[in-house]
Amino acid sequence: MILFGETTPMPTPSMTVDPNSVTPGFAGFAMIVLIVAAVVLLIWDMNRRIRRVRYREEVRQELDAEEAALREQIDGDDDRR
User: Fold this and answer.
1) Which pLDDT score, from 0 to 100, does residue 13 have?
2) Would 36 be classed as within a structural domain?
3) Average pLDDT of the residues in 32-48
4) How far is residue 19 CA from its own chain's centroid?
5) DSSP string, 8-58
6) How many domains does the chain have?
7) Which domain, by its residues, includes 52?
8) Do the domain assignments include residue 2?
9) Which of 35, 18, 19 is nearest to 27 (CA)?
10) DSSP, res 17
11) Is residue 3 in some structural domain?
């Protein structure tokens, strides 16, 4: 039981690599810029496509409303005869 009561010494980690030499450098910066540019272009394209779909739906609704009004007008003229 004495073995479980003893504490084992914990080694302290030491830096073996210079933190200044382990950087992404220009290549990492360039890749991040390319990824950001691609994401911005994808978001811009997505917004454009969503806007186009919304406009098409608005035009369809307007055309349906005009067609319904025309039918009501024609049906109203037929009832008068």
Assistant:
1) 77
2) yes
3) 97
4) 34
5) PPPPPP---S-TTTS--HHHHHHHHHHHHHHHHHHHHHHHHHHHHHHHHHH
6) 1
7) 25-80
8) no
9) 35
10) S
11) no
